[in-house]
Amino acid sequence: MKICIVIPLFFLYSLFLWGTQVAHGELSKSEMSRDEAVKLFADANEKYLQAIKLIASKNLPEADHKLKEATEQYETILTGGFKNGHIYYNLGNTYYRRGELGKAIVNYRRAARFIPRSVDLSANLRLAKDSTEDKELSTEIPAIVKRIFFWLFFLNQNELSLVAISLYVLLMVVLFFSNVCKYGGIKRIFIGISSVLFIVVVSLGLKIYLERGVNHGVIIASKCEVRYGPGEEYEPKFEIHNGAECVIEDEKNDWYRVYVKVGVKLGAGSEARAGEKTGNEVRSGWLQKKYVDTI
Amino acid sequence: MRRYKFYCCILISVVIVFGYVGKLCAQDIRLTATVDQNILTLGDQLRLTLTIHGTQDTAPPSFPVIEGFTLLYGPSISAQTRNVNGVVSVSKGYTYVLQPAAKGKFTIGPSTVEFEGKMYSSQPVTVEVVDKSRSSDPQAPDLEKLVFVELSVDKNEAYVNEQIILSFKFYFQKGLPVSDINYSEPTTKSFMEEKLGDQRQYEEIREGVLYNVLELRTALFPMMSGELAISSAKLKCNLIVSQRRGRNTSSDSYFSDAFFDDFFGREQKRYPIERATNAIALSIKPLPEEGKPKDFKGAVGSFDMEVSTKTQRLKVGDPITLSMSVYGEGNIQTIQEPALVINKEDDFKVYPAESTTQITNREELLRGRKVFSKVIEPLKPDLKFTPAIVFSFFDPRAGQYKTITKEPIPITIEAGEQELPIQLTLSHDKPALAKRQVQLLMEDILPPMTNLASLRNQGNPVYRNPFVMGCLLIPAVAVIASFMLTRHKERLTSDVGYARTRRAHAVAKKRLNGALSVLHQHRQGEFYSCLSKAISDYLADKFNIPPASATEDKVIVLLQQRGVKDDIVEEVSRSLTDFDRRRFSKDSGTWDEMEHSLKRAEELITKMERQLS
């Protein structure tokens, strides 16, 4: 009877991992060694710190030059296949210093996928979001959801995978001992562990879907017109600005179909008071790909 | 006291009656002439109704001059009073039934009526009398005339984003019961659309026939220039027509009056009707580039603007909320906020505006109001005015751009209070005068992460690690192996047949070893007995039969049933016969021959094990 549970469980789990591996097809083997990456990273950090000193001494052109160099070095590490949350975070900082809020937010968001517990990252992301013109354009998950499903936001994808694998191994050990020594209470332990494993595997699938299945984008141009259709011939519908976050639904040639959440006031115009935000409205439209960077 | 009450009642009644009559007198007086059909055959009857609208207190209208018809009877008089949303309308109708006397086209001349010294006349009505009905079914009504639809726009040429009113009208002859109305809207691709009001219902006279009209109106806003099309609208409904119950013979003419119809009842027939309008082509012009203001953001229509602020006296850094209300005709939803004219960038800090939209009128045209609440912060104490506000739009009626400029609003700004410095330690010299708060001097991003030890490639998924793959495979294999082992042990103890089968080979080997020791003791007869027993007991174990019943004939049959190769079966038969013969014979062979027999028995059991396992 137990074999009927173990074998499907094992195959389902293997299938799931195979699926995730397919989803990660783009993650090719790193072309850059760790030593090279560390060297470049240290060098870029040094240039960033020099730029901060130059900004303090009001030498802005030289500071900008240093920041540009630091940006290029961080980008080189990342394009070399060496991905790390700290690199994305530092890259976000350099873009923020250079006034490119959209690119800063993109890189902070990418960093959050690797280092979700970083307090510094949360603070910088909040500051960058507060500096954007469209503050009300928000794709933030409500705090209550974050508290209830804390493990989803506390662990990154690899950490969650490790938890799942550990639970799987534990489950197998329990099954092994239940075969070897017939102990009555082991059934309860088996049910408990398999329930937790189920929740963790579902959470992992959900995390992968949220990070890979849904395409999030950030506006990287100073101003961007969202049109009624995929072409210049369509009239503009509304405008969004640098740093605004959107969800990409579809694409056609050089255009993305996106939707954004816009804060709106409800009620009659005469009754509404300034600053009284009472609801959200989802607006969709088409914008050119060159204005968006995907997370 | 009772007398006073009586007078009061009389007074109130008089006021009500005179008020009502006065209200009626205020209505427009008009006289209309309508017919129930304008194409009929010689055998048909024509109902002509002269209706006086606005009063019931007139003499009957004059009977018009009618050629080609004779008056059968009339007039039958009907008075109607309607109260719709407090608006009272009265009318009085005089209906005549006419019989056509000849074929041809005839005009029913105008009828006249006099009311309070004024003459009112009706419009002439043209009626055609034909030889016979065009329809194959003489009782079937001419549905094309009874019910039709129209789709129209108020203009065929417009600018991008200009308001166009699309009107769909459903006409059905007055008095016709229509049911199950199903309306399919036209496709308005490349337009933004907004429904205008509720469905309208009124009466209209077309070619002398009175129709009920249902009208649906939509405001359209073209989103692009060029030749745009609005597809046809469709309507399906059922027309319920009362007909006499199959009494078409001439003898029935005696019974063909209203009395017998009422007595026998009339048959109600449903005619499913489907109508489609024509498609509409529109020419949409782009907005002219000439004279386009710099602050123009695409508003098209006729708009005005109001600007207000709640506070005019404030301190440096205090926010002012400018309420900019743009209202008028046009696509109010898509209007962008008016522009602020700020002379120096460091005069004011400007925050993005929030807006609310309200549609104020949907009856004739789409009118609305959009209020933008914009917060600005004066950064200098010497500022005297808010920025001027400019809103530009394109007026399609005038064919030109217009700009509304609202002058700056005067404000008085006082210098802000001096902020207390941050105090990290308590000073004993000065008493605490006020509640002090730590102020955030500057908000900046946190420094970069420089920990090189933690720098590792996080891009590789953890399950690509061979150790992890091993963690997945090895426990599963171990669990399956432990399960199979446990099951095997359980069967060995509980299933005798299984246990004998599994142990048969090992037992046979032991017996052959026993035969070898017997051989060394030179007990030839016993040696062959051991060999024979080893083979027959091995087969008895394999087939789970008692050793005593494992005779040569039986084991041969069982081996053949299990599909063992014929040469092995023959060898088993030959060996068993040979061993039995030598067992009881004096000639038991040489030492070499006995060793050979032992080897043959061993090989035979191994071959059978391969075949039977």
From TrEMBL, chain A:
It comes from the Bacteria. Keywords: Membrane, Repeat, TPR repeat, Transmembrane, Transmembrane helix. Pfam families: TPR_2. TPR repeats lie at residues 85-118. InterPro entries: TPR-like_helical_dom_sf, TPR_2, TPR_rpt. The chain crosses the membrane at residues 160-177, 189-210. This is Uncharacterized protein. It comes from Candidatus Brocadia sapporoensis.
UniProtKB/TrEMBL annotation, chain B:
InterPro entries: BatD. Pfam families: BatD. PANTHER family: BATD (PTHR40940:SF2), PROTEIN BATD-RELATED (PTHR40940). This is Protein BatD. It comes from Candidatus Brocadia sapporoensis.
